[in-house]
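Reminder: ligand-aware prediction takes two inputs, not one.
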Amino acid sequence: MTGIICGTGSYAPSYIMDNNEIASMVETSDEWIRERTGVATRHIIKDETTVSMACEAAKRALDDGGVKGEEVDLIIVSTISSNVILPCTACEVQKELGAMNATCFDMSAACSGFVLAYNTALAYLSGGMYKTALIIGSESLSNLTNWKDRGTCILFGDGAGAAVMRAKEGRMYLPVTHSDGMKGKALTCLSRHTKVSPEHMTDPEYYMQMDGQAVFKFAVKKVPEAVNEVLEKNHIDKKEIAWYIMHQANRRIVEAVAKRLDEPIEKFPMNLQEYGNTSSASIGILLDEMKRDKRLKSGQKIVIAGFGAGLTWGASVMEWM
Ligand code: UT7
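Here is what comes back for the chain with oxa(dethia)-CoA:
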């Protein structure tokens, strides 16, 4: 028994912030940002919230898969930037979809979140506990971004990506995931829900802080290792892989991973130029885009790979529906 993705959906806020707007806030330039990251624009919430984007992406995924709300028996939302703590975002999605039969919970796994949500749903589906799952990555990173820090504010964006999964007879591919809490300092953000006086809430620690070079080096080394590990574990040759759908953090990271794997860059689709880094939403948004423009074809083998705060990283193989 395994689980397959049978529908995808995504949502991006209509407000688009380009690099020149960022250059009006911090000392940087469109040229620098494009060259060092590949990012040209990012979508930023105005009226939207993490919950509203998750609901919209989820509705589109259900529509796409021809699945009714009441059929869903598991909803997992990956987010580090929800506007609600209680009830969890997944329960808010349940309410909106009328998915009264679903078990709902959120997970906090940052940029590895979509891969971990996929693996978690896969474990439940292949184990026979549930039949239909909805996984969603939804992020309002602009609320956690320090708009005075040019080392981070150039990178991030907001959005949501979702996928519906069904239990199905077939081969179950085993994922590979790793965590290294010892390196957690490379990417941090303190919660604002603490007993700190309000005037300290705007201190830099309450926004995302990153050692960009450390995260860059970690990603370039660990992601190819995880991809090779997942392929070996499942006895799959690189030639069989149609697409490597990576977390969209930086074009140079994607290029370096392709080079280390000795695979053509054409197998590594990117949309970070439009969205920036949307953390746990990025892989879901890209999957949805590729499904809609028909790049994803039945029977193709796909690797999804995530990495980020924790530090955490991992890769999974799937066969497209
Ligand atoms: O989702 C997972 C989490 N995040 C990531 O995957 C991000 C990984 N890291 C990165 O993408 C890159 O490290 C950054 C894009 C954040 C930075 O690029 P970099 O090539 O590593 O730049 P750097 O930090 O080594 O800085 C190079 C220079 C420095 O100037 P000096 O010391 O050489 O004079 C920086 O002060 O560029 C300067 N700099 C900037 N200049 C213009 C740093 N940020 C900017 C900026 N605009 N926004």
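The chain has a mean pLDDT of 97. The longest strand covers residues 158-168. We will return to this case in the review session.
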